[in-house]
Design brief:
Order of helices and strands of chain A: EHEEEEEEEEEHE
Number of strands of chain A: 11
CATH topology of the largest domain in chain B: Glutamine Phosphoribosylpyrophosphate, subunit 1, domain 1
Structural class of chain B: alpha+beta
Radius of gyration of chain A: 19 Å
Number of helices of chain B: 7
Structural class of chain A: mainly beta
Largest sheet of chain B: 7 strands, antiparallel
Oligomer: heterodimer
Order of helices and strands of chain B: EHEEHEEHEEHEEEHHHEEEEEE
Number of domains of chain B: 2
Strand order of the largest sheet of chain A: 1-2-3-4-5-6-7-8-9-11-10
Strand content of chain B: 25-35%
CATH superfamily of the largest domain in chain B: Aminohydrolase, N-terminal nucleophile (Ntn) domain
Chain lengths: ~230, ~300
């Protein structure tokens, strides 16, 4: 358990303390706490999940699955790589990964900002529901699949099937796209798009210009049933 | 869900510690596979015509001394190393005839692997229990392939545990599931393969081995596997001097690789690698889908 809260700063060492202690502390009264550090995470799953307070959490090492999942209000920084489902279903706040993030990063996020400084694996931002994701490197295949709202900014390249079956979410890509998914198309960047990308890059602390990005959004041909289409699958 | 682990030691001085480094890797994957586990280790190499056969008998009271006596009497020169209900038999007798002889005289004894270098252990139980039962900590060698199983499509039995083998010095472990193991099996049985379990993975192991036997490169064999396997997989494969890793084109199942000047370590999740010396400065990456990665023993 926590030995002392000094100047609002608490340190946990997962080599000595249990993950349950960390998460129960983070779910308790944090009014006297400004920052929490988690040492030796060593790839443990579900670190700092379900936070609901404006606390700053540093995970000093590699995190396992679902790091900072369901986050609200908190800022969580993984100083290393993150496993599958990082910041999945985030509602608000900010999650940052200094290394790479595995598959399903930011899946279903309703709000908040996920910044991945390295690359993201497959299915980044799948079913995004209003959150924003900025990836400093590349994203794997099937990213933003069925993404409904929010923005995915990709500073590197994208894999296959980008934005398949998109709804209202918008993708911005600086590099190459190996292939677009069904119903995703490249559209001209508007002033509003430039403003969105520049704002998100500034928030992420990444110094590219929105002029280098292209916009990918839904062509909306899947919004309505097309009885004349070839229905043989 | 299952867990895979692999370790290839580049640094000679670490090779006596292969088992010691590996056991925490295997135990780290307990939550992914608590019902069975196994390990193929490539260690001391037999010369000339000699082969090693890893033998298993489910009966814990099995009289291995009796088997030793019979083997010496009928097959001539042989060496034995018994650990619990497992024995490594080293002999110059032709492996196929040893199999037939064993099946006739000791039908409860199963051959888990054959080869010059490979030793194979697999059994039901928590990874820590299996590791203790067969003294995995003391294993030495250049590289290994390990697995922790959470059964999804066939029963929890020793023969359905991984690794699987085919031919000599070839093994495969699998995280995932195949939807067409029956058709793979029928295809291979027509070509002469003999299956020993109900597990979907055995088909994958024998399929890739069959293609390698036809002279295909591992890359080409796996290109065909992408066409013929309907399902999800991360496969880790071992040969006498290589580890090979591949994920299905959708990368449904995880894998992470840590490489340093001293070793290449592979696991389903980083938490199985966290204890390795120097891992904080290792080159870490997730293998790309449908890309074949190989590492050779130098």
């Amino acid at each position: 358990m926590v030995s002392a809260v000094k100047s609002g700063r608490v340190v946990f060492d997962l080599a000595k303390e249990s993950l349950r202690d960390v998460n129960q502390f983070l779910h308790g009264d944090l009014s006297a706490v400004t920052a929490v550090a988690v040492e030796n995470p060593d790839g443990a799953n579900s670190i700092a999940v379900g936070l609901n307070a404006p606390v700053h959490v540093d995970i000093n090492g590699h995190a396992g699955y679902y790091a900072a999942g369901m986050n609200q209000l908190a800022t969580v920084v993984v100083h290393g790589n993150a496993g599958t489902g990082c910041a999945e279903n985030m509602m608000s706040g900010r999650v940052e990964v200094t290394g790479f993030a595995s598959a399903g990063a930011g899946a279903s996020a309703h709000g908040g900002l996920l910044v991945i400084r390295g690359s993201a694996g497959l299915r980044c931002g799948i079913s995004l529901k209003g959150g924003n994701i900025v990836v400093g490197g590349d994203v794997g295949s099937f990213s933003a699949f069925m993404a409904q709202a929010g923005n995915l900014v990709i500073c590197g390249d994208a894999g296959d099937g980008l934005g398949d079956s998109l709804y209202e979410a918008v993708i911005y890509v600086r590099g190459q796209v190996r292939s677009l998914g069904a119903d995703a198309r490249i559209e001209p960047m508007t002033e509003a798009d430039h403003a969105t990308v520049d704002k998100l890059l500034a928030e992420a602390g990444i110094s590219h210009s929105s002029k280098e990005f292209k916009r990918i959004a839904s062509a909306k041909t899947l919004y309505h049933w097309n009885a004349d289409a070839n229905q043989t699958y | 869900m299952c867990g895979i682990v692999g370790l290839l030691l580049k640094k000679q001085s670490l090779r006596p510690k292969l088992g010691e480094l590996m056991v925490p890797m295997l135990i780290g994957m307990t939550e992914r596979g608590p019902d069975s586990s196994g390990m193929a280790v490539f260690g001391s190499r037999e010369g000339g015509e000699r082969r090693k056969l890893s033998l298993y008998c489910a009966d814990e009271g099995f009289n291995w001394s009796h088997l030793e006596g019979s083997v010496l009497e009928h097959l001539g020169d042989a060496r034995f190393e018994v650990k619990a209900n497992h024995c490594i038999l080293s002999t110059a007798a032709e492996p196929a005839s040893v199999r037939v002889w064993l099946a006739t005289h000791f039908p409860t004894v199963h051959v888990l692997s054959v080869g010059r270098s490979i030793d194979l252990y697999k059994d039901v139980g928590l990874p820590s229990e299996v590791a203790d039962r067969y003294s995995f900590k003391g294993l030495t060698g250049t590289h290994l392939v390990g697995h922790t199983r959470m059964a999804t499509e066939s029963a929890v039995t020793p023969e359905n545990a991984h690794p699987y083998t085919a031919g000599e010095d070839w093994c495969l472990v699998h995280n995932g599931s195949l939807a067409n193991p029956g058709s793979l099996r029928r295809k291979l049985e027509k070509l002469g393969a003999r299956f020993e379990s109900d597990c979907d993975t055995e088909g994958a192991c024998r399929y890739i081995h069959w293609r390698l036997q036809m002279g295909e490169s591992l890359e080409t064999a796996l290109e065909h596997a992408f066409e013929d396997f309907d399902g999800f997989f991360t496969f880790l494969m071992g040969t006498e001097d290589k580890l090979a890793l591949v994920r299905d084109p959708f990368a449904c199942k995880p894998a992470i690789v840590a490489e340093t000047d001293d070793y290449v370590a592979i696991a389903s999740e980083f938490r199985s690698l966290a204890h390795l010396p120097g891992v904080k400065h290792a080159q870490l990456f997730e293998p790309k889908p449908a890309e074949v990665y190989t590492w050779s023993v130098q």
